[in-house]
Design brief:
Layout (H helix, E strand, L loop, with lengths): L11 H5 L7 E5 L3 H7 L5 E4 L3 H4 L11 H14 L4 E5 L9 H15 L3 E5 L5 H9 L4 E6 L5 H4 L12 H14 L3 E5 L3 H10 L4 E4 L7 E4 L1 H5 L15 H17 L14 H10 L7
Parallel strand pairs: 1-2, 1-8, 2-3, 3-4, 4-5, 5-6, 6-7, 7-8
Helix pairs in contact: 2-4, 4-5, 5-6, 6-8, 8-9
Bound molecules: 3-methyl-2-oxobutanoic acid (KIV).
The site of 3-methyl-2-oxobutanoic acid has 11 residues, from loops.
């Protein structure tokens, strides 16, 4: 079934309960309108901090402020009625201490009414994930390629391609699971490692560039729509929205220049009596 019909909004425990079952479907979303369209087809929507790169043209996700995530989070919660909405915690708003993370995550949840937050990091975030989940904040973890750490990782690089990296990433997965995360994003991981982690842990793995072995998949919506100028190898373009936008804008510009647009059907007329009076007042004795 590709389209959902029930209306109850999904929760973090609903997603956890899907472990090992039908694949979990998710996309990023930053606006009410695309959230409303995607809502019928996905299980959760992520208001990713990729919004900074996709919509604001930043080189990385590092400059994204908390306020921006809250504004976009509110829009997506308003647009989606059924999907769980997860909001990303941006760089610098949760790493310092569990209390810093709680303070900011609580603000995100209060102001957006989202159902969960996501944060990046494995072992190093274990204590924070436990602190948040014990206080009622569902946490989605994110390991493998963690874009907020690109300066430390040396760029957007696939992780786990050599087996000496495996132990550390497997430990990340185990720690976030034991700390209480309800699901974990695996980004840019070699397939055998993603498959092993998916087998070994009790929470769903959500892959982005981490193979079909994961319990679910997520993509950046603009990438899969064909709206992004450059896309990674793991993205499939399911649409050509960029081309459709350009064609529409080109036609609009042509029609404005050739005075074909606005046509009579796009133009407001006056009521006929008023038009008559207006014509008379302007020295014209018949309707034009
Ligand atoms: O910010 C984002 O879009 C993400 C996805 C890539 C998982 O974290």
């Amino acid at each position: 079934m590709s389209q959902h019909t029930t209306l109850r909004r999904l929760t973090a425990p609903d997603i956890t309960a899907r472990k090992g079952g039908d694949p979990i479907v998710s996309l990023t979303s930053y606006h009410a309108h695309t959230a409303a369209i995607a809502d019928k087809y996905v299980d959760f929507l992520l208001v990713g901090d990729s919004v900074g790169m996709v919509m604001y043209g930043f080189e990385s996700t590092l400059p994204v402020p908390l306020e921006l995530m809250i504004m976009h989070g509110r829009a997506v919660v308003r647009g989606a009625r059924r999907a769980l909405v997860v909001v990303d915690m941006p760089f610098g708003t949760y790493e310092e201490s569990p209390t810093q993370a709680f303070h900011n995550a609580a603000q995100v949840m209060k102001e957006t009414q989202c159902g969960a937050i996501k944060l990046e990091g494995g072992k190093r975030m274990g204590e924070t994930i436990r602190f948040l989940t014990e206080r009622g904040i569902p946490v989605m973890a994110h390991i493998g390629l963690t874009p907020q750490a690109i300066n430390a990782l040396g760029g957007f690089k696939t992780q786990g391609r050599s087996q000496d990296q495996w132990a550390s990433i497997e430990e990340d997965a185990r720690v976030v699971t034991e700390a209480g995360a309800f699901a974990v994003v695996l980004e840019a991981l070699a397939e055998p490692l993603a498959a092993k982690i998916t087998r070994d842990i009790s929470i769903p793995t959500i892959g982005i560039g981490a193979s079909p072995a994961c319990d679910g998949q997520i993509l950046v919506m603009e990438d899969m729509l064909g709206l992004s100028p450059r896309i990674p190898k793991f993205v499939k373009e399911f649409g050509k929205v960029g081309e459709a936008i350009e064609n529409a804008i080109r036609r609009y510009a042509d029609e404005v220049r050739s005075r074909q647009f606005p046509a009579p059907e796009h133009t407001y007329e006056m009521k006929s009596l008023l038009l008559l009076l207006f014509s008379v007042a302007n020295g014209r004795n018949r309707l034009v």
